[in-house]
Write a structure and sequence with these properties.
Helix 6 packs parallel to helix 7 and helix 7 runs parallel beside helix 8. Helices cover 50% and strands 13% of the residues. It contains 16 helices and 8 strands. It is of the alpha/beta class. Strands 1-2-3-4 form a 4-stranded parallel sheet. Strands 5-6-7-8 form a 4-stranded parallel sheet. The chain is globular, with a radius of gyration of 21 Å.
Length: 350
């Protein structure tokens, strides 16, 4: 039975290299010619970058082929892999719907088309043979105009059957010049009763305390325990959860080794701040959630008790998980009922 929850996975970075390369070979002659051999493509797609901005440029490669027509193709394979290879019971997919609309359209037409994109992603995520609870987080973007970002918030409010929260993405260094604008958008989102998370305190350039009061979860947030541990007490009081994505920090050049995260986990546990371990961009990293767990354990960043606490926290802070308990607890209850029934049947047979 699936046991895990991933609260931070980008639709653009979720496509594993092999599936993306095969799509290029079959449907995109230009990209197929650029990467004729799979090994060459995998090396390019998954290698470490020097900065977060350089890393985020890879999203444009995938966004260009995630259209109305192709999204079901990619999402089916995403859900299948998440269920079979990662044991996921719950998955929140985040993306900017505007970036999946047609560039041939006007801004107004692209805003109108966003509703169709959300519907396609929502319906394609419901795969009967792979029963995962899924929901969407719609991302505002640091490089999109205010009108588009506000439309994304409004869309999230209008489509709650598919959408569980909003986010802001696009590189945290780019928020600074528009900080008041994003504060206003988050304030507006909270007034609509929307759940909120946001890419914040991921890098040393993305530390904006002005946004913290509007977030229910913090996307990454590793610079808080590393550089601003005095904030942890308030984060614990507000029951804000950090979405830690270990491999990302190596791929973006933010950290030199996973072991640097030990300080993050230790300080958060000491302060009573919850952490959910996530994948961020499982395809770009070619690393699935159980391997994130294993890497943290084998490199002595966390122990098994801390891992279980993080897994519990992921379900506790999941915006759209419909049950009061995580799947392992539910399964134990079912097994206990089965054992009790077997014992009763045995007594009746005597």
């Amino acid at each position: 039975m699936a046991l895990y929850a991933d609260l931070h996975r980008h639709l653009g970075g979720s496509v594993v290299p092999r599936i993306l390369w095969r799509y290029f070979q079959r449907h995109s002659p230009d990209l197929a010619q650029r990467f004729p051999q799979y090994r060459e493509f995998e090396e390019f797609y998954t290698r470490e970058r020097n900065t977060l901005d350089e890393y985020l440029e890879l999203h444009t490669l995938v966004e260009s082929v995630q259209t109305e027509q192709t999204l079901p193709y990619f999402i089916y394979r995403l859900i299948r892999g998440a269920y079979i290879f990662e044991n996921l019971a719950y998955l929140e997919l985040r993306y900017t719907p505007y970036l999946r609309t047609s560039e041939k359209f006007s801004q107004f037409e692209r805003i109108e088309q966003m509703q169709t994109i959300v519907e396609i992603v929502g319906k394609a995520s419901q795969v009967k043979e792979y029963p995962i609870v899924t929901s969407q987080i719609l991302c505002m973007h640091s490089r999109l105009p205010y009108e588009v970002n506000k439309a994304i918030v409004d869309l999230a409010a209008d489509m709650r059957d598919y959408v569980c929260a909003i986010d802001v993405a696009g590189g945290d260094a780019h928020y600074a010049q528009r900080l008041d604008e994003f504060v206003g958008l988050y304030e507006y989102a909270r007034s609509l009763g929307l759940n909120t998370t946001g890419h914040l305190y991921e890098t040393t350039d993305g530390c904006y305390p002005e946004l913290l009061p509007y977030l229910m979860r913090i996307g990454h947030g590793i610079q808080i325990p590393l550089l601003y541990p005095e904030l942890l007490k308030e984060i614990a009081r507000c029951n804000q959860c950090l979405e830690i994505c270990p491999t990302t920090y190596l791929k973006t050049g933010t950290l030199d080794s996973l072991y640097e995260l030990k300080v993050v986990f230790d300080r958060c546990f000491e302060a009573g701040v919850d952490i959910a371990i996530c994948t961020d961009n499982a395809g770009l990293h070619n690393v699935r959630l159980p391997f994130e767990y294993e890497n943290l354990l084998t490199q002595d960043v966390i122990d098994f008790k801390q891992l279980q606490a993080c897994q519990d926290a992921a379900f506790r802070h999941a915006f759209a998980w419909p049950y009061g308990q995580r799947p392992a607890t539910l399964l134990m209850g079912l097994l206990q009922e089965t054992y009790s029934q077997d014992e009763e049947d045995s007594l009746l047979a005597l």
